[in-house]
């Protein structure tokens, strides 16, 4: 059997119909592209989850800073009250 060049692929015809070999090569290419697309989709979703985690941590830090400022204000008011009493 001779080899045929179809769509830049060298195929050994397994059937007398060359269309079947080309179709099989295209299916392999489609599966490869689908796998690559799935890999990129997983990476995209993982990156989104990591960004969400970073945003949540930033919100927590912002809330902690707010609480710290409120606590400092309360402490300063208590110091002022204690100094007035003294």
Describe the structure.
The chain is mainly alpha-helical. Helices cover 79% and strands 7% of the residues. The protein has one domain. The radius of gyration is 34 Å and the shape is rod-shaped.
Task: Present the secondary structure layout.
Elements: E1 4-6, E2 9-11, H1 18-85
Antiparallel strand pairs: 1-2
List the defining traits of the structure above.
86 residues, 1 helix, mainly alpha, 7% strand, rod-shaped
Task: Give me a quick take on this structure.
This protein is mainly alpha-helical and 86 residues long. It is built from one helix and two strands, in the order E-E-H. It has one helix at residues 18-85, and strands at residues 4-6, 9-11.
Q: What structural class should be given to the helix and strand makeup? A: mainly alpha
Range of strand content: 5-15%
What percentage of residues falls in helices of 4 or more residues? over 70%
Major sheet: arrangement of strands: 1-2
Tell me about the biggest sheet?
A: 2 strands, antiparallel
Low-confidence stretches: none
Number of domains: 1
Number of helices: 1
Number of strands: 2
Nearest-angstrom radius of gyration? 34 Å
Task: Output the helix-strand order.
Answer: EEH
């Amino acid at each position: 059997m001779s080899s045929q060049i179809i769509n830049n692929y060298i195929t050994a015809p397994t059937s007398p119909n060359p269309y079947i070999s080309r179709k099989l090569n295209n299916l392999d290419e489609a599966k490869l592209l689908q796998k690559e697309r799935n890999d990129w989709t997983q990476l995209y979703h993982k990156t989104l989850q990591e960004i969400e985690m970073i945003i949540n941590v930033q919100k927590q830090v912002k809330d902690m800073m707010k609480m710290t400022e409120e606590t400092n204000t309360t402490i300063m008011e208590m110091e002022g009250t204690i100094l007035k009493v003294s």
